[in-house]
């Protein structure tokens, strides 16, 4: 076990703290004030606190100078060693001095945990074990108590335990955490013979013959930790300490190696042949990088922050010296490096496990959870190949020259693993990693290699899992160099939860699930269409490469289409299939954007989209690709409402492409809708007079866009409100399938109703998914607001919706004020401050035949929709439809408007005025809006009333 004095040359620990100087200053305090006086204690505390603060400041400066994270952690650890040793010396020499100590009046202070490894992050706990020879004595209790209170008064977080040697051994046999702590035990100060006795007995009485048990427990512990944190190393806000590919995984490797091989340092694994020199260097570089990130995080935040969140990623990237490159910002380059290091940690885990299996093959019958074992029996041949063997459910090589003799075997290996449902032996993966240079242009153009790859990609089993294995081994990025460029690439936004390569593999997994019919409840249309897709290979290739050109200066959709035209012939695809893949990649965002940001009741929206798609085959392929893309973004991004929007767009476009959409049919559908509603109301017991009176209220747009069941429900709702004399009324219901809750409001119409509803939802913390807002011919608004579901239980969701409904009602009758609540929500939201979205406002008269479309893009914030609709009301614009789409921290809002006389906004001066006012809102500088207006423009006032028309608000 290493001792505190085992310091390598050239690491400049003396620059952090001078042990001799500290010891001399403490003795001077004792000489001046005595040892056991309050004056002495205050002076000692002030001195050690100042020493610690200055030492940490020097450690931070040296981190900025040499960039070594591991050295920084070692320097801080050394600093605490010196402080603790000096305090112990002062306590035993001046405070509780014993002239002739008994055998019981001895102790050793040892470091455990990360501190035991001689590394300590700036904000980490100091974990100490006070080891006694026998039982506690008054002297040992006094010294321990004095030490702990001094450290606590310094502001240190101290984890501690006081045990004798027998207790340490007994507890370590039954508690794996304590066993690991003693495994890392490191001498700081005290009775060295006592430390050596514990170390010797621990090796002989606990470690001996328990290697397999310890390894299985630590790997099972690691798997459980990954499951809890997130079982992927490609989360865009990773946990540097506990996450997959983080420091704790490296610690686990060290624990296993030290326990099993009895080594003192990781470098010893090279001497015993478990790691190559290159692999050890990889370990050292990974550890140093992760320590640098962690130390910078702690220094920046001022506490033990382990999650590399968005709001500090940019600062850490700057601290580490990353620079922006074309297509990638500095923070994105930093995070790509981080994920590549996390991947290296995974490679090292496989390599070490392979070495352990080789060592254990003849010594152990097996390990818990199958981590090490399956040693009974000999490997057997796999039918159809002489190069690979089945070693108890895992593929292994017939000889080490398999890849060198035929490089196609680097692809065939994964094809056989998929075909035979076999795992791949860690040692085989190690050989793959060492053979990556064999993947050259000749192999990439090899017909058999590409045939095998396409078979993997379109496998009816689990293609995403096999592709992920290929990616982890480095094969996928070498075989498809364009894919290699986006491996470990993150996008600095709150929308995407995973790196680009992980997103693409998850998209393939989503397509495979649709292909197998597993998602029929959540995505019925895509599941229904999939069996009829003739171009199955086209779809799989498009899904795999749709984001392959991310990180380039050129738009990734356009650049991706160029990549598709290069790759598809390699994969054996015809020119027609190649062009179809290229079209899908180029248009892969189109259907999602149209569905979420355009008015699907506007005929031109559907016609323009149909002109872009042109054929039903393309429409089907694009729908499925869009579904896979959204579902692979991250948890919670896909919901039933987005599915409903896509289905609506699909069915409306299908009518246009097949020739079934016309103005004549629209009029006929309105007539039929009125007749059906009259018939339903009559059957429900309405009188003829009531039916005729009500059927005149709704506009045509309402009858076309609202389902028949909802029309009947609304009619009953309005009649009940009228009979009760309620001018303002509301009702609530939940939609589990769509993951939304519906609040329907009946109120007198007025110009700012839309803004008030949006503001009330923002004040209540509700995220609007959509709203259907219609006006009746008698001057009332019938508004249905759809908010994203927050609770799984209907009763909880109904209570929440009721509170939101009351907020809306109280605001409308004037008993509640929105600005304060919205500002409180806005102040509480801090995460988006890490992002920068340049505000953008555009006005278009070509997206609709009858309306002007105002499109805005900006950073999201609470109350944004309320602010925008309020200023549009100020500008005397009639909002017929608004679509608010959120992509993480960014919103893309589209408002379909016209002026008060029902015309488009064509005057350039007025357009400039609108853009200036809206831009001020997006920049959150509404007070400056009037100053930014063009000269000669008179600002409209809120008193101008406008006629109400049917309009639709949608937010997804």
TrEMBL record:
Q: What is its EC number?
A: 2.7.7.59, 3.1.4.-
Q: What InterPro entries does this protein map onto?
A: ACT_dom, HD/PDEase_dom, HD_domain, PII_UdlTrfase/GS_AdlTrfase, Polymerase_NTP_transf_dom, UTase/UR
GO MF, any single term = [protein-PII] uridylyltransferase activity
Task: Supply the SMART domains for this chain.
Answer: HDc
Keyword annotations for this protein, in alphabetical order, are: Hydrolase, Magnesium, Multifunctional enzyme, Nucleotidyltransferase, Repeat, Transferase
Region ranges (Uridylyltransferase)? 1-383
The way its activity is modulated is described as:
Uridylyltransferase (UTase) activity is inhibited by glutamine, while glutamine activates uridylyl-removing (UR) activity.
Which residue ranges run through the membrane? Answer: none
Q: Which residues form the ACT domain?
A: 742-824, 853-932
Q: Which reaction does it catalyse?
A: [protein-PII]-uridylyl-L-tyrosine + H2O = [protein-PII]-L-tyrosine + UMP + H(+); [protein-PII]-L-tyrosine + UTP = [protein-PII]-uridylyl-L-tyrosine + diphosphate
Residue ranges annotated for the HD domain, each copy included: 500-616
Instruction: Note whether Transmembrane occurs among the keywords.
Output: no
What cofactor is this protein dependent on?
Mg(2+)
According to its record, what is known about the domains?
Has four distinct domains: an N-terminal nucleotidyltransferase (NT) domain responsible for UTase activity, a central HD domain that encodes UR activity, and two C-terminal ACT domains that seem to have a role in glutamine sensing.
Described purpose of this protein according to its UniProt entry: Modifies, by uridylylation and deuridylylation, the PII regulatory proteins (GlnB and homologs), in response to the nitrogen status of the cell that GlnD senses through the glutamine level. Under low glutamine levels, catalyzes the conversion of the PII proteins and UTP to PII-UMP and PPi, while under higher glutamine levels, GlnD hydrolyzes PII-UMP to PII and UMP (deuridylylation). Thus, controls uridylylation state and activity of the PII proteins, and plays an important role in the regulation of nitrogen metabolism.
What's the family?
Belongs to the GlnD family.
The entry's protein name is Bifunctional uridylyltransferase/uridylyl-removing enzyme
Q: Which organism does this record belong to? A: Pseudohoeflea coraliihabitans
